[in-house]
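Input/output pair, single chain:
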Amino acid sequence: MDASIDEAKVVRINPGSFNRAGVETEAGEVEIRLSRYGNWMVHIREAGSSEWSIACTGDMKSGVLVTEPLSEDQDRMVFGPLTIWRAARRVIVGEDEVVLGRKEFDLLLVLASDPYRVFTKEELMKAVWGWFGESTRTLESHAVRLRAKLTTAGVKGLVVNVRSVGYRLCPQIPPTPRTTTRPLSGVSDHAPAA
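Output:
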C-alpha cells in the first residue's frame, strides 16, 4: 500500500549536534540527519526492521552528494562509543558529532586502520601529509588536538603517544566485527624493528 504524506507521521528531534526529521509510514521510515556543520545523511528502515541503512550522504558546503555510499561494513568503524564514518568524514560519540580538522580526521583514520599497531612518526607523516621532514611538530600538534577533542567528547585514552616512536589507537573496547581495515599506501604492514 502506498502511503501519502497525510498518512505519515513526521518526527522532529534535536539530540545534540544533529537535527533530525523523519517520516514513518506502514512501509517503513525515512530519517534525515543534518549536523550543525552541514553534513547530512538519509537513513531508511523497512517496517518491522530494527536496522537502519544509509540511502545517501552529502555536504551542504561543497554540494557533494554521495548516492552510492560504501556498504556500512566498509564505511563505518566502531570503537566502543566512537564511530568513524569514512565517506562522510564524520566522527560520532554517542549521538554527538566530534568536529575534527581535515588532518586530525586523516590521522585518526590512519590509526584506526590497524588498531593497537604503533605507527612511527615517519609513517604517519607520509600517510597524512605525504612527506617526512626533520620536524614532527606538525604531527604532534595535530595529535594533541585530536586527543583533546576526543577526551572532551568522553573518549579518553584512545590515541596513545608511544614515546619517541609514534602513536597508536588503543580502543578501550575491542573493535566490533563491523570494523574493517584497509592497507594504506606507503605504510608497511610490519612494526619497525627495535
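The CA atoms of residues 22 and 31 lie 4 Å apart. The longest strand covers residues 28-35.
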